[in-house]
């Protein structure tokens, strides 16, 4: 199986393709942007993630954002 993700300027698209090159799942969602404040820019990535994240085994004690709606 293969996962393709297109991070475009207006939307994010994802495809799951099987070994026979058939699309077995796809999803697209409008991209949402907001201006970063100077305080946010100075904050480390680990500190920005709240309690709605999921454990990241590559960074002990850190969290990464959960996928919206999953």
UniProtKB/TrEMBL annotation:
What's the superkingdom here? Bacteria
- Kinase in keyword set: yes
Does Transferase appear among the keywords?
yes
Q: Which InterPro entries match?
A: ATPase_NBD (IPR043129)
Q: Name one GO molecular function term.
A: kinase activity
The entry's keywords:
Kinase, Transferase
Q: What is this protein called?
A: Xylulose kinase
């Amino acid at each position: 199986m293969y996962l393709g993700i297109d991070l475009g300027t207006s939307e994010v698209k994802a495809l799951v393709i099987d070994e026979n090159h058939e699309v077995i799942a796809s999803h697209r969602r409008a991209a949402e942007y907001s201006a970063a404040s100077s305080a946010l820019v100075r904050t480390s990535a680990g500190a920005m993630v709240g309690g709605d994240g999921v454990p990241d085994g590559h960074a002990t004690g850190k969290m990464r954002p959960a996928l919206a709606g999953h």
